[in-house]
Amino acid sequence: MHGCELRDDGTVTGFLRYGYDGREFMFLDTQTWTLIPQMPQAENISRRANSPDLLIGEIYRIYLENECIGLLKNHIEDGREDLERRVQPKVKVTGQEKSGMTTLHCLVYRFYPRQVEVKWMKNGVDDVPSYEFPQILPNLDGTYQIKVSVEVIPKEEDSYSCYVDHSSLKEPLNIVWEPYNPSVWIIPLTIAVVVIVVLGFGGFILYKKRTDNHRTTNTPDTSVEFPNNEHTA
Questions:
Q1: Rounded to an integer, what distance in angstroms lies between the CA atom of residue 92 and that of residue 90?
Q2: Is residue 220 a part of any domain in this protein?
Q3: pTM of the entire structure?
């Protein structure tokens, strides 16, 4: 197995490793450019490879600094769009309470590139350890997602937030979890019910008045005038 790396400062490094039966057989020391045996069976082979008439390490150095780096630069140029692509993450925090314990979930999704830091914070400082090992999973559109969950026993004075740091962000996100409070909905719900009742009653009264006016307007005059048959003696 071998590979090369072009660092930000322009320097080049690489590796060359041989394996046998699931173990490392020998590797190339890139300081001395010689093969170092890792098993007794590799000693004769490495000695031969490092001999002046072969100099395998020197041959690899030439390959590393020329052909391998050239191929790497071509791959970088071809994939520059993907390398420079940045998609900011979306974050959703939720909580589930059971038996006095609250499980907090922080779902971070639709972000690119893959590398991201996600953790739960207590009161903005303490790092709350997750009860499971979170995994970064791929989406069908090429972005990624991760969910970090913790179990806590929240107190009234405590605040929990999900900290997210990603290369697409100018500064890290800190999304605070808001506990569910049923009383928050009581007043708005009561007001809404009262408004609906008042509007409904008002509409009924208006409808009743219009109906009564319509009946009065369309009622015909059915009065009959009888002649006076009384005679004076």
A1: 7
A2: no
A3: 0.52
